[in-house]
Amino acid sequence: MSADPATELGRFQSLVLQDEVLFERLHATADLDAFISLAVRIGAELGCRFSEEDVRQAVQQARRDWLMRWI
Questions:
Q1: Domain spans of the chain?
Q2: How far apart are CA 21 and CA 17, in angstroms?
Q3: Which CA distances in Å does 10 have to 3, 70, 71?
Q4: Distance (Å, rounded) from C-alpha 45 to C-alpha 62?
Q5: What is the rounded CA–CA span in Å between residue 10 and residue 7?
Q6: DSSP state of 4
Q7: Up-side HSE of residue 33: CA atoms within 13 Å toward CB?
Q8: What is the DSSP code (8-state) at residue 31?
Q9: Shortest CA distance to 43 belongs to which of 18, 1, 8?
Q10: pTM, whole model, 2 decimals?
Q11: How far apart are CA 51 and CA 21, in angstroms?
């Protein structure tokens, strides 16, 4: 049975928020494609399984959520 990508991505986000160095490493990646690749690679190193498409969708959803707060 494979893990739910949304759950895995949420677990990864929690780990990043607890690790200032990791947070800064991801935050310093300005290019979206590079950010997504780095997030998937680091996630895999931490045992979190999600795809580049999972990250891309999460970024798009976060952007929509942010915009909706101002509309």
A1: 5-69
A2: 10
A3: 12, 25, 26
A4: 24
A5: 5
A6: P
A7: 0
A8: S
A9: 8
A10: 0.86
A11: 23
Angstrom distance (rounded) from CA 46 to CA 27: 18
Angle between helices 32-45 and 20-27 (to 10 degrees): 150
Tens-digit pLDDT profile for residues 18-55: 999 999 999 999 999 999 999 999 999 999 999 999 99
Q: Give the Cβ contact number of residue 59 at 10 Å.
A: 14
Amino acid at 60: Q
Q: How many CB atoms lie within 10 A of CB 40?
A: 20
At which residue do the structure tokens 């976060």 appear? 62
Place of tokens 């677990």: 11
